Amino acid sequence: MNHLPQAWGRPRDDIYGAYDHAHFQTAAGPNQHTQSPIVTGTSVVAAKFKDGVVIAADNLASYGSLARFTDVKRLRKFNETVVVGFGGDVSDMQYLDRLLNSLDIRENYSSTDDPLNAKNLHTYLAKVMYKRRSDFNPLWNHLLIAGLDGESKPFLASADLLGTTFSSPTLATGFGAHLAQPIMRRTIPDENSVKDVSKEDAVKLVKECMKVLFYRDARSMDKYSIATITKEGVELDENVQLENQSWAFAEQIRGYGTQTA
Amino acid sequence: MFRNNYDNDSVTFSPQGRIFQVEYAQEAVKQGSVVVGVVSKTHAVLAAIKRNAEELSSYQKKIIPIDSHFGIALAGLASDARVLSNFMKQQSLSSRLTYDRAIPLSEITSRIADRAQINTQQYGRRPYGVGLLISGVDAKGPHLFEFQPSGVTQEMVACGIGARSQMARTYLERHLDSFEGSSREDLIKHALRALKESLSQDKELTVDNTSVGVSGIGEDFKLFEGQDIAEWLDATFENREGGGEEGGEAMETDS
Q1: Rounded CA separation B46/B211 (Å)
Q2: Chief localization class (chain B) (predicted)?
Q3: Residue B107: phi, psi to the nearest 5?
Q4: In terms of Cα–Cα distance, which of A28, A46, A37 is closest to A94?
Q5: Which residues on A lie below 8 Å from B97 (Cβ)?
Q6: Given its phi and psi angles, is residue A259 left (phi above 0), alpha (psi -120 to 50 degrees) or beta?
Q7: SS3 for B55?
Q8: Which of A6, A227, A235, B95 falls between 20 and 30 A from B212, CA-CA?
Q9: How far is Cα A162 from Cα B89, in angstroms, rounded to an integer?
Q10: Angstrom distance (rounded) from CA A96 to CA A85
């Protein structure tokens, strides 16, 4: 018996001959939805500071556990006040990138000179994600939207493949939610402490998180992108090398691997 | 006998380069009662004369709030205005839902302009028989837009459309320089005075026949009617007889 769902309920090939698929609208057979991500990006980390937001993600796209592409830019500048960070499926990221491109073009052609701010874009992307999950065809991403809101105040929020939204002074997706988030919360525990954090502090904090993630996340890389969004605009560096690594702690790890003691 | 062969539909030009159906639609606007709009640096005000078909009937609605940040005033076919205002309400709501953004006034204006223009270029359709003043506040401050059945829209500092609106426009042109720095109350006074100019001699502004729509920076669009505008009418036309108590005067009481 043919176990493939597309053969169910159809005349048997061995009796009636091969099924004629010609009447399908698509040449590739039945329409299929994403069941799991294929090429993936790992964590995105971001933190607010007193006059903006800093966001970072490494430049790796993994194919399973294979470090397949090492020059994938996962931070996308939308305009002078918004940067979107993508975790999860890279092809869905590219789809969203094209979607944001068309949105940007539409916005620039319309007569208004009131550009979409980070809050607007987060609402929009959350709606897109929720729409797709409701079609049972999710975009397999976890997004961080960093930038400034309508009052030019720092804005940071996430939207995931279920359309769930969340906002916090520090945010991290994927592995970073477990490894980076607690580190960032030590410095920025709540919204009130944001005003005491300078840009330099926040950048240092996020860089430290990228280092910890490289130490412990096997799907990460030591080359990453980092962006700061302030009233002065977006500062995006897409080729940062992880510095001051110290692997001394690795010696202490026991319980798995090749050590005998 | 002369017969105009070029006004049967809105897709045919006359040899003089005119589209009569569109011009007729603009005539419909001139038959509507007058509405005026004025903007300052901080506020946008609409004012309108309401007509009633007969003594016993209610007054025609002239100002329609669309979203919390803006509203429209209409002159012409009220039913066409309803179609447009419903569309504008939907578009405004959809902007708030999808982007969490109050739709910019220039944006909503160009969307109805596009709709209206299509009606002037497709066979079997007719132009909207209504002119609108779109007024409110968005991220870029207070605005006033004028919309015509032809699909033409313009941003205005002050504007009047409808029957005898030329008198109102003359008043507005005379006081053009004072609008920008006007306070909220002064702006309302200007709007009411402009409205009064275009009224025929035997008519007056009363709490029953006047509508005022006000919005400002940090102030949502609100429609004022009835007793809510009594104070403004009194303050604007201090020296008139009756002291602005028309609402009470008409009532007969045993005393």
Answers
A1: 8
A2: cytoplasm
A3: -70, -50
A4: A37
A5: 127
A6: beta
A7: coil
A8: B95
A9: 29
A10: 11
Phi, psi angle pair for A181, to nearest 5°: -55, -45
pLDDT digits (tens), chain B, 255 positions: 778 889 999 999 999 999 999 999 999 999 999 999 999 999 999 999 999 989 899 999 999 999 999 999 999 999 999 999 999 999 999 999 999 999 999 999 999 999 999 999 999 999 999 999 999 999 999 999 999 999 999 999 999 999 999 999 999 999 999 999 999 999 999 999 999 999 988 899 999 999 999 999 999 999 999 999 999 999 999 866 544 444 444 445 555
Q: What is the pLDDT of residues A191-229, one digit of tens each?
A: 999 999 999 999 999 999 999 999 999 999 999 999 999
Q: Which residue of B has its CA nearest to A108?
A: B107
Cα–Cα distance measured from residue B150 to residue B78, given in angstroms and rounded to the nearest whole number: 17
> Does residue A170 have an active-site annotation?
no
**pLDDT per residue as tens digits for the range A109-149:** 886 678 999 999 999 999 999 999 999 999 999 999 999 99
DSSP codes joined into one string, B130-181? EEEEEEEEETTEEEEEEE-TTS-EEE-SEEEESTTHHHHHHHHHHTHHHHTT
Q: What is the pLDDT of residue A27?
A: 66
Measured between alpha carbons, how far is A176 from A44 in angstroms, rounded to an integer? Answer: 7
* Contact across the interface for A114 and B100, Cβ inside 8 Å: no
Sign of CA dihedral B34, B44, B113, B72: negative
Provide the total of helices (H) and of strands (E) in chain A, helices listed first.
Answer: 6, 13
CA neighbours within 13 Å on the CB side: how many for A87? 25
Strand duo A61-63 + A165-167: pairing: unpaired
Q: Are strands B210-216 and B158-161 parallel, antiparallel or unpaired?
A: unpaired
Interchain CB distance below 8 Å, B106 and A112 = yes
Residue A169's closest CA among A49, A82, A83?
A49
ipTM: 0.84
State the amino acid at position A92 in one-letter form.
D
Residues 6+ apart with CB under 8 A from B1: none
Q: Name chain A contacts of B217, Cβ cutoff 8 Å.
A: none
pLDDT at A13: 80
- Cα-to-chain-centroid distance, residue A135: 21
What six digits make up the tokens of A172? 């991290």
Which residues from B are below 8 Å from A114, CB to CB?
104, 138-140
Q: Which of A36-45, A54-63, A124-133, B201-210 has the lowest mean pLDDT?
A: B201-210
Q: Which residue of A has its CA nearest to B109?
A: A111
Contact A173, A220 (CB under 8 A): no
User: Which H helix or E strand runs over B193?
Assistant: helix B184-197
